[in-house]
Design brief:
With 238 residues, the chain is an all-beta fold. It folds into two domains: 64 residues, no CATH class; 136 residues, Sandwich (Immunoglobulin-like). It has one helix and 17 strands. The strands form five sheets. Strands 8, 10, 11, 12, 14, 15, 16 and 17 form an eight-stranded mixed β-sheet that branches. Strands 7-9-13 form a three-stranded antiparallel β-sheet, with no helix packed on it. The longest helix is centred in the middle third of the chain and has 4 residues. The protein starts with a strand and ends in a 20-residue tail after the last strand.
Amino acid sequence: MDVRAEKTTGGGNETNRTDASQYRSNGNGGNSTPVPHPNPDALPAVPGAVTPVDCKTVSVPCRLTPSATPTPAAEAIPTVTLTDLARFRPTPPVLATEPAGVGIVGLPVNLVATAPAQTLHGELFDHAVTVRFTPHHFTWAPGDGTSLRTGTAGTLWSRAREPQFTETPTSHVYTARGRYTVRVTVAYSPVVTFDTGWTQAVSGFVSATSSTQSIRIYEAHTMLVAHTCTEDPTGPGC
């Protein structure tokens, strides 16, 4: 901004020019001191960022107009819901039973699921994303009209070094002989990470169900006999 001020120094006028203030004599033979501009709004806060509209005289208030439109803030990523994850599905768990495919009325049948955490990749809201599925709980359907919910996938007797028919957190006892269809459903907790680095834990669960397993439950009877089947092939139970 160009502001001019005049002062008389004996034989004529002397003009001082400044971009920010008016000058006046301090009585020391031509030296001068600055006088603040009466209209501070006429001065740009950041040099080069604004253009004066009307600053021809110091007595006229002037306003400064931005020389460029501010850049709008980046659009926020919407909150992810389970509906948004319809294309992202974890691999179904694998179900195993012990003893394999059979059981005895009144004794535990061990049910075990293989369901590790999984990471899937894709696109969401025009961003590359990774979706992490972590098992939260397991719902067991033994096929006899009952159900069991656990926070564990179970452990094989052989891996836990337990004898057969040991009760476990995921075992089930059948009360009648017959053939049953068993399955397990895993509820996964999803967490989404965008290519911007933004991470969201999605409310709710994404479920995946195993294929069914058929299990045959038998009755077991014991009796006292005088001879083994080798000794008496016609004896009871032989």
